[in-house]
Specification:
alpha/beta, four-stranded mixed beta sheet, 25% strand
């Protein structure tokens, strides 16, 4: 198969593309079948059954495209999904070997052109939907990412979609400009579909820890978000919960429930190590404004009691929910606050049911439901 041509001379924003909100209608959800046992020590088989429950819920309203390493693995995965009573007519296996299954971060991030009358040149893509290649590098932490970073290319070939090459200009030591890959992950951004994007300083502005784009300033990040995701307004929170392997992904912290409403995690136990960093987000959010200048409504989402594996504090968070066509799936942790969180989200999402999926084992991989999924807009 011929390599995918990356569009480098024009940006999505220039052509009228923008990233839609997660609650807008999907054509499909992308997942990566779990195979890397180091992500879930001694628990990999349990995780396969969690996937079965996820797929069963999501296929009630859309296709699920699952990345597998081989046709043999597709057959193996299918045996689990059939026993979990999934709608196999809505499951498509896509053979693309991966390093891990965190599809939110390495999967195809879509942008959509909402106005068909947008004035474009004859040579530009005519597709309503396109994919942006953000050049995943395993959160600037692990060395095995070379397979994962090519997932957008496979998705573009499969769906016959334009693929934009995300690049930025970095200043070298001798003050010359050097073109580099622009690296972000889907879990590090949150959009409301109207022009506002939310992210964190811990993830993309820390000077020494897991630096994705060395030397990139906050202003440059703002510029790149606008250029490649079609947003007009970028908001920065501070930091996320302890134990987050990604170092501050927004999808463990703060999410849009609709165009104007945010849910923000809140730790009420002052002795908990999460209390101070999460309290800083609550201070910051008071000053944030949406794309139209209005103040967002902010709803508190509780935190579960601390979860550990050996000496590791795990990043358990109810904010890591996923909005599919059929329902909102929410991680639960055998905790009294499970019911509280489900109730809060149930009040906010009135157009589809809110259901819990047991995630105590899942979060051992330092991620949860949202981290594993990536939506493909209709």
């Amino acid at each position: 198969m011929a390599p995918t041509k990356l569009i480098t001379d024009q940006s999505p924003a220039e052509l009228g593309y923008a990233m839609p909100a997660e609650w807008e209608k999907h054509a499909a959800t992308w997942l990566g079948w779990p195979h890397n046992e180091s992500d879930w020590p001694d628990k990999i088989d349990t995780i396969r059954w969690v996937y079965g429950e996820m797929v069963r819920k999501i296929t009630q309203g859309e296709m699920v495209r699952i990345l597998v390493n081989s046709k043999a693995e597709a057959k193996f995965a299918g045996s689990y999904l059939k026993r979990a009573n999934c709608d196999m007519k809505r499951v498509q296996f896509v053979v693309h070997p991966t390093n891990r299954g965190w599809t939110r971060d390495s999967g195809p991030i879509h942008v959509v052109r909402k106005h068909s009358t947008f004035n474009i040149q004859r040579s530009t893509p005519k597709s309503r939907a396109a994919i942006v290649h953000f050049h995943f590098n395993a959160w600037a932490k692990y060395k095995n990412w070379q397979l994962d970073t090519k997932v957008p290319e496979t998705a573009a070939k499969l769906l016959k979609r334009p693929l934009f090459d995300a690049q930025w200009q970095a200043k070298t030591r001798n003050s010359k400009l050097e073109t580099r890959n622009f690296i972000i992950e889907g879990g590090g951004i949150e959009v409301n579909g109207r022009g506002t994007l939310l992210t964190t300083e811990e993830c993309y502005q820390h000077p020494t820890v897991q630096v994705r784009n060395p030397g990139m300033t906050k202003a440059q990040y703002d510029e790149m978000f606008k250029k490649y995701l079609g947003v007009t307004n970028v908001l920065w929170l501070v930091a996320g919960p302890v134990g987050d392997d990604t170092h501050g992904h927004i999808d463990d912290i703060c999410r849009f429930a609709n165009h104007k409403t945010l849910v923000l995690i809140k730790e009420t136990n002052k002795r908990d190590m999460n209390y101070k960093p999460l309290a800083e987000n609550w201070e910051r959010v008071q000053d944030l404004r949406l794309e139209d200048g209005s103040k967002p409504e902010v709803v508190a989402l509780p935190m579960p009691a601390p979860l550990y594996y050996k000496d590791w504090r795990l990043p358990a968070s109810y904010a890591n929910f996923y909005i599919s066509n059929a329902c909102v799936i929410v991680p639960t942790f055998n905790d009294p606050n499970d019911c509280v969180a489900l109730g809060i989200l149930g009040e906010l999402f009135r157009d589809r049911p809110v259901v819990g999926i047991h995630a105590v084992d899942l979060v051992l991989g330092f991620g949860s439901l949202h981290c594993l999924t990536q939506q493909e807009p209709a």
